Amino acid sequence: MKVTLENLTKRYPNLNRRIKTEVIAVNDLTFEIPSGKLVGLLGPSGCGKSTTLNLISGLETPTAGRILFDEDDVTGLPPEKRGVGLVFQNYALYPHLTVRQNILFPLENLKGAEKLTRAEMLQKADEAAKLVQIDALMDRRPSELSGGQQQRVAIARALVKRPRILLLDEPLSNLDARLRLQTREEIRRIQRETGVTTVFVTHDQEEAMSISDEIVVMKEGVIQQIGRPQDVYDAPKNLFVAKFLGTPPINVFSARIEKETLFIGEEAVLPAPGLPGGTVTAGIRPEGFLPDPEGKFTLSLSRVEVMGRDTSVVAEHAASLSGAVRAIISSESRPDPESRTVRFSLKPGKVLLFQNDEAADRLVPPGQKEEDR
Ligand code: ADP
Ligand code: MG
Fold first, then answer.
1. Residues 214, 253 share a domain
2. Partner of 8 for a Cys bridge, out of 65, 78, 172, 336, CB 3.0 to 4.6 A?
3. Has this prediction a pTM greater than 0.90?
């Protein structure tokens, strides 16, 4: 099922009652969640992710705008009439019930024509448990499960009624690093197997990038960019998006264009054909640096960190706007850690230029099409 959000806005009265202005949690959001896809809703804390999810589920009603499930307008429907499956950060299982009873719970509350026989319920619960691979744990209570297992039970419970859409709000945030990796792959597998349209909310860009068909990057209630993870990473719409995606983060420099050449400090580091002169902000991805004794970009070397396959070069540059500069290079081309300076040539596709404003659009040289990147 496809979900369409049309000009969705949610305002709250300010939590501080003395402040009369309202909080705009979600501001004129318009986007489509394609049928059967997993969409990652991504942005810093407070940017409106949970509010957006709650508007889709019906836990919140919008101040303005519409929500369509396929062609049906569900804006006025309560959550239980929407056919949504919800999973939250804290697993919210019933502690006194077994895994089986927790999964059965939504089925036992079906009324009228939807009512199932006991045998049908047990069969559905078994299917859901198998799907998330907790069928061996059906008689345990939540306290006898690991965090990852508890979250699987929560997912099974959300799926057992065959929801039209699965909504997950930071489902991995309570898990430790290893379980987080494992469980996110599980969620991806379950989503593929069921084909259920899914919205996955997270503040963790790596998590969103790794499992989403599409990501929606939000800031202060406003969508910044929508696209496939790699496309958004390669061609961020503005500096905010460029900085939000990628670990280590993009290195940011104050720079200028003179005679169609990009200067950082006094060095002419790259051609910039077709771009007008003036100051700009240059973002260089950590993987955009090539150690090169003849390179045009010189930095003072702080240290060289060997991380197995890759090496991280940490350096200083007076024009850096993001503190220490981090380059990730292959371990074969490691610079001498004793030298005071290090020189690089730059991979043009990894250097992104912006106007000097976080929200302003990225500068794309005329004639350079996004597809060429
Ligand atoms: P996120 O999930 O991205 O961290 P939220 O959607 O929870 O963000 O919140 C977005 C903004 O709306 C925040 O500024 C938050 O303080 C505000 N907000 C959320 N819920 C309420 C509420 N019930 N009353 C007032 N303000 C709220
Ligand atoms: Mg939230």
1. no
2. 65
3. yes
